[in-house]
Amino acid sequence: MKLVKLSTSMVDQLSRDKVVLLPLGAIEQHGPHLSVSVDTDLVSQVASKAEELLGDEVLLCPTLSFGSSHHHLSFAGTISLSADTYTQVVIELAESFLQNGFRRIVLLNGHGGNITPVRQALALLSAKYDPTLNPNIVLTTYWELAGRSFSGAPPMETPALSHACEYETSLMLHLYPEKVFSGKIERAKRPASNGFIPWEDDEPYKGVTIVKQTGYISSNGSSGEPRLGTAEKGQHLFGHAVDALVNFIRSFRTWPFLEKLSK
Fold first, then answer.
1. What kind of architecture, by CATH, is found in domain 3-7+14-251?
2. Residue ranges covered by each domain of the chain
3. CB half-sphere exposure, 28, CA atoms < 13 A
4. Alpha carbon distance 141, 216 (integer Å)
5. What pTM was estimated for this model as a whole?
6. pLDDT tens, position by position, 230-260
């Protein structure tokens, strides 16, 4: 069920136990070979296909196309909200549904830079609304939800989804081939491995984090190995992403609203 196809009276008649699905994207550079709309395009397609399969089980909202992308601003075409602003935007969008009686909300993320500010939004929403409305509001990122399919399982040849990589290039070749500029695909220059920081997802996470602007860790804004991308791999990835989301939402619909255990 798509929110944009309903009138206010039609929404008013919906069961308040319905799952609200809000996709979160971004408009930002994706190297020389992909359009700046990648994150918004991909998360929108995953959400839309899941809605087709779930039907009345879910209320699909329009995608929030702008994300927290300040680390990409040195590359042209990036449009970003600051982390603080993005946190507040997510809070107020969630509150719009809470104030109308919906208590099950899935924030479906399609951009890595959104994760930290959305987690902060969830913490603030919990502190404000758990004592009264006690909603279930979750963040899930589609490639993390799909697990091994997006972290090296065949037919993929690189360790994990990163940015304008084999994975995103494959998905775009499958879903939006007109937005892939194949003659521009090239591997970026990246920092040498130091054994702790996975610049190219070539090191497992070891509890060490460093934050650098994209221009310091990629010569052209991409990462991974986009030359390995194919439409066939993209079809494979898309199917697994949709299946994972559908399975999750069907589980999430049954989750109880937690009662406070402490006095």
1. 3-Layer(aba) Sandwich (3.40)
2. 3-7+14-251
3. 24
4. 25
5. 0.95
6. 999 999 999 999 999 999 999 999 999 999 8
